[in-house]
């Protein structure tokens, strides 16, 4: 069976795959050299090379996207699946796959600004780590004397703080680490300043801050490296960034947030001021007490000087001497009375004792009999015939021998 071969016109150009791909790429690049495409991120991958690969899609279609490391290094927020973004870039073809895609040059989040989104993403991540927890934060010393400052040497913030410190009578030692607070590389300078003051040594606390500004102006204080330097500091840190309405990541992780640099300085001297007021009050009370005491003693001295004793001292002494003589006589009379009373009591007791004495019985004609050993004989059974006994009379003693004993 004969094979039928189609006939081609000799004028028809036949492309190689690489040729047609190259022409398509040139056409796409000329037509879509700088486009803005809105869509949702999916299949996001951050390669170890630093390049980012993802798919940008809407309800009915999708396009591959490449965000090279050189371009994405300035991305402020974190790309992730589900994020709605606007990509700015050029459309081209990846020859190896014959696949058209967008080579991204810049990305903006849809709805929120890039910085605001980056702020919210970092805030959420650090909060999950527990870096905002109150129990992690250190106490600010009540009476600090050695203060470290990390701020711009030319800004209003440093002048406002120094003005407050200079007003105080007590001495504060200020250690200043000058840094830039705006522009590229600012976050690294602030981190280095915090670390340098920690290496310096025995500071009581550190103030990190600057005056007010836009979100872009304050952005260095929203950088993760600054936040982690604050957390890792061994010295308590007060953040003082912007105005009262401005909040930065540094405010959330610091040990105390002051809404302005001036408020930070006032926080430091607050208890010193209270102590100064208490000392002044105590000093005034002491002065008043001493004045009142001196007034009272002065009045007592005047009264004593005008008294009769000071005006007629010998008369007063003579009166006292007479009073002594009088008291002496009273004491002598009192002593004599006591002696007489005691003598009479002694005579009475002696009379009673004599009345009870055995000798008084002998005076009345009675006698007392003892055996040879001097034992008093009270009963007949205490003697026997032939025994010698003694009889005590008023005027002497008789010795007798018993010849008969009977009742």
Which features would summarize this protein structure in a list?
single chain; 407 residues; OB fold (Dihydrolipoamide Acetyltransferase, E2P); Rossmann fold; five-stranded mixed barrel; five-stranded parallel sheet
What is the element layout, followed by pairings?
Layout lengths: L16 H15 L3 E12 L5 E6 L4 E6 L1 H4 L11 E11 L4 E11 L4 H15 L17 E6 L4 H12 L5 E6 L7 H15 L4 E6 L13 H9 L4 E5 L7 H5 L2 E2 L3 H45 L2 H4 L1 H44 L1 H6 L4 E4 L16 E5 L4 E5 L6
Parallel strand pairs: 3-5, 6-7, 6-8, 8-9, 9-10
Antiparallel strand pairs: 1-2, 1-4, 2-3, 4-5, 11-12, 12-13
CATH topology of one domain: Rossmann fold
Order of helices and strands: HEEEHEEHEHEHEHEHEHHHHEEE
Number of strands: 13
Number of helices: 11
End-to-end C-alpha gap: 195 Å
Major sheet description: 5 strands, mixed, barrel
Question: Could you characterize what this model shows?
Answer:
The chain has helices spanning 17-31, 69-72, 114-128, 156-167, 186-200, 224-232, 249-253, 261-305, 308-311, 313-356, 358-363; strands at 35-46, 52-57, 62-67, 84-94, 99-109, 146-151, 173-178, 205-210, 237-241, 256-257, 368-371, 388-392, 397-401. A hairpin with a 4-residue loop joins strand 4 and strand 5. Helix 4 (156-167) packs parallel to helix 8 (261-305). It is α/β, with parallel strands linked by helices and 407 residues long. Among the domains are: 17-111, Nucleic acid-binding proteins (OB fold (Dihydrolipoamide Acetyltransferase, E2P)); 127-134 and 141-273, 3-Layer(aba) Sandwich (Rossmann fold); 361-401, no CATH class. The longest helix is centred in the C-terminal third of the chain and has 45 residues, at 261-305. The strands form 3 sheets. A 5-stranded mixed barrel has the order 1-2-3-5-4.
